[in-house]
Amino acid sequence: MLKEYQGAMEDLDKADVLEPNNAFTLGTRGNVKRMLKEYQGALEDLDKVDVIEPNNVFTLMSCGTVKYMLDEYQGALETKIRFIIFNQMII
Q1: For residue 21, how far is the Cα from the chain centroid?
Q2: What is the pTM of this model?
Q3: Sign for the pseudo-dihedral over CA of 14, 48, 86, 78
Q4: 2-90 belongs to which CATH class?
Q5: Phi, psi of 64, deg, nearest 5
């Protein structure tokens, strides 16, 4: 399974070179990094997505989880609250 994630990372890195700041690429790469427990790198990618697409529900969930894993509890809580508020607005 690890090889599949590493292969995905290589492809996502290439995609990022071809089209920098693509929210889908950055979000996917952030989530792959999260699964590989590369939390700081994941947070960097997910934070970029949050600037490009504020209130993206997938980004907010992943970003909150990564912040929690980095012991950034206040930031994790604030991100999860944004997720809850945004979800209530779209329901």
Answers
A1: 13
A2: 0.88
A3: positive
A4: mainly alpha
A5: -60, -40
